[in-house]
Amino acid sequence: MNAGDIAPDFTLPREDGSLLTLSEEVAKGPVVLFFYPKAMTTGCTAESCHFRDLKAEFAAMGATRIGISADTVEKQKQFADKHSFDYPLVSDRDRKVAAAFGVKRPGPLFNKRATFVIGADRRVLASISSELNMDKHADEALAVLRQQPA
User: Fold this and answer.
1) Cβ(98)–Cβ(111) under 8 Å?
2) For the segment 68-101, what is each residue's pLDDT rounded down to a tens digit?
3) Would you please indicate which residues are annotated as catalytic (active-site) residues?
4) At what angle do helices 73-83 and 42-53 cross, to 10 degrees?
5) What is the pLDDT of residues 116-133, one digit of tens each?
6) Is-above-0.90 flag for pTM?
C-alpha cells in the first residue's frame, strides 16, 4: 500500500469489543492507522505510547489514531488499560487486513511495523515503515498531516 492507493475498508473489533469501520472513521477526518507486531512487547509499547503522548498534536490536525495487530481483543484491552491509551486498538486475528495493506509476514511471523496516513476519501497520503525507530511512525505521520491543505 503506497501513497495514492485507496485503503481497503474493514470492520474489526476494538479492545472494548465494539466494532470499528475504517470508512466511518475517515468520514470524521484523517486516520493514522498503525500496525504493530505484538501488544505488550518493548518496541510496540514504546511506539504506542509515543502515539498516546502526541494526542494534542494529532487532535489539532483532526486526526484519529488507530492501532492494529493480530492480538486478541482481550490482549488489546490489557495493553490499552495498562498504558492508558486514548485511541482504539483493533484486533485483526486472521491478519486479512494486514494482508490487504501489505504488512502480513508469512506463516506465524508477526506483522510488519507500518503506519498509513489515510485521507477522508480513503486515499493513502503516506506509508511509513521502520522496524527499529519507534518514534518515526507518529512523528512522520504528524509531518504528513501538517503538510495537507486546510
Assistant:
1) yes
2) 999 999 999 999 999 999 999 999 999 999 999 9
3) 44
4) 60
5) 999 989 999 999 988 878
6) yes
